[in-house]
Structures are given as C-alpha cells and as structure tokens.
UniProtKB/TrEMBL annotation:
GO terms for molecular function: N-acylneuraminate-9-phosphate synthase activity. PANTHER family: N-ACETYLNEURAMINATE SYNTHASE (PTHR42966), SIALIC ACID SYNTHASE (PTHR42966:SF1). PROSITE patterns: AFP_LIKE. It comes from Thiocapsa marina 5811. Pfam families: NeuB, SAF. Residues 197-249 form the AFP-like domain. This is N-acetylneuraminic acid synthase domain protein. GO terms for biological process: carbohydrate biosynthetic process. InterPro entries: AFP_Neu5c_C_sf, Aldolase_TIM, PseI-like, PseI/NeuA/B-like_N, SAF, SAF_AFP_Neu5Ac, SAF_PseI/NeuA/NeuB.
Length: 249
C-alpha cells in the first residue's frame, strides 16, 4: 500500500462536481455501497469524467452486481486497472462471522481488479488481515470518542488504536516481502554455524572409499554441503582425514 492519501465520497453528479472543485488535490474518489448496488449509469459516468483511479465499495452487492458495475465503468472509459474494489459489510459494527475476507480474493480472481477492504468491525484485526491477504486499499472510520452518539463511532477506533492499526499494516507490508525464497540479509551471519557439512565420522586413510559408515554431517557449514552426499559416497579419499575433519573430493 502507498502512503495514506485523502479521498472523498461523491454521490449525485452535482455533489461530485462540487467536491471536485473544493478538493482539487484529491487523487481518488470512492463510490458508496448503494451506488455499486444500483449501478446507475449516469452517476458512474459522472465519476469517470474526472479520469482518476476509482474505488468501488460493494456493501450488500452480489458478485453479479459488482460485475455489472465494473462493466459500466469500463464502458464509460475507466480501464479495469484503475478500478479498486472494496468488499464491505454495511452493519455497524460488523460481526466477525459476517466479514468474509475470502470474498475479497474471489472478486480479485473473478474480475482481475485490485482489491481492498472497507471495514466496519469494532477492532483493527480485519484491516491487518486484509492487507496480509493482498488488500491495496483500506477504509476504516476514525472517531475521537467511541462513546459519541451515532452508528459510526462504536465501530471506529480512537486515534491511538488507529495509529496502532497503521503501524501493524506497515509491518505486515514489510513482512510480506518480495516472494523470492532466499536467505535474508539478517540471517547471513548465521549461515556458517547453522548449516552443516560432510565430515569424516572416523579417521579415513588416503585411498579409502567414502561410505555411509565413515562419513557424517555436522556443523559448521563451511565445507561440502550435505546436498552432495550421493556425489561423495563411493569416491576414494585423496588424502588422510582426521575424525570430524571437513571432507574434500
């Protein structure tokens, strides 16, 4: 995920235009849940005219309705690669058993779009889990006091908890890595002592054949890798080896 950026939710076309005028630096606009459900062409067209990346929030929508909304956006000129779809539940706060984070992956795989999650649960676990699953956008309401009246406040973290959520998400992003399995820089110093080598299990004289009985695998990992065991067994020793000495071929 990129650094947090300001977004606005536009509703009817006039509202969208007014918000665009007063928020000229807004980079993205978010469609409210019922807009995706109704998929009204005129309103979607109004969004597309701005030519910005578009976030489509999909509370109460079915997979078929999401597909219809994406089709309308593409027809109106928004390429699929500029659309991010956010699964959402419109109950405040959302029960954990109704979150269904796997639906986010289903949307990504079905339509080839970027996905995120619009979260209305009472805690911060769901946004963190969503990022671990591949969310590129997180929507989470923020309140100064959870005890204030209104449905949003009880489902929203206060500033300290919100900051903890952001820190956790940033750590998750770091932990996800690049997907290439290789020793990490931090563990390089452990490699010589953690890995093992093929050594003499007993004294071996020059000309003796290496066998499973006179070889062993022990630390440190500064000699022949145990991955070469089958290559070594059967070879003749070119010199004498003391007990526990690293084998050479």
């Amino acid at each position: 995920m990129d650094s947090p950026r300001l977004t606005k939710t536009g509703h009817p076309p006039r509202g969208i235009e007014a918000k665009a005028r007063i928020t000229a630096r807004v980079l993205q606009r978010k469609r409210a849940e019922y807009e995706a459900l109704k998929a009204e062409i005129a309103r979607l067209d109004a969004e597309v005219r701005f030519g910005k990346p578009l976030i489509l929030s999909t509370g109460m929508a079915t997979l078929g309705e999401i597909e219809a909304a994406i089709d309308v956006l593409e027809t109106a000129g928004t390429p699929r690669e500029r659309i991010t779809v956010l699964p959402c539940n419109t109950e405040y706060p959302t029960p954990m058993q109704d979150v269904n984070l796997r639906a986010m992956l289903a949307i990504r795989d079905a339509f080839g779009v970027a996905v995120g999650y619009s979260d209305h649960t009472a805690g911060i676990e769901v946004p963190i889990a969503a990022v671990a699953l591949g969310a590129t956008v997180i929507e989470k309401h923020l309140t100064l006091d959870r005890n204030l009246p209104g449905p949003d406040h009880k489902a929203s973290p206060e500033p300290g908890e919100f900051a903890a959520m952001v820190r956790a998400i940033r750590n998750i992003e770091l932990a996800l890595g690049d997907g290439i399995k290789r020793p990490s820089p931090s563990e390089a110093k452990n490699e010589p002592i953690a890995r093992k080598s093929i050594v003499a299990a007993v004294p071996i004289r020059s000309g003796d054949a290496f066998t499973a009985d006179n070889l062993a695998v022990k630390r440190p990992g500064t000699g022949l890798s145990p991955m070469r065991w089958d290559e070594v067994v059967g070879h003749g020793a070119r010199r004498d080896f003391d007990n526990d000495e690293l084998i050479e071929v």
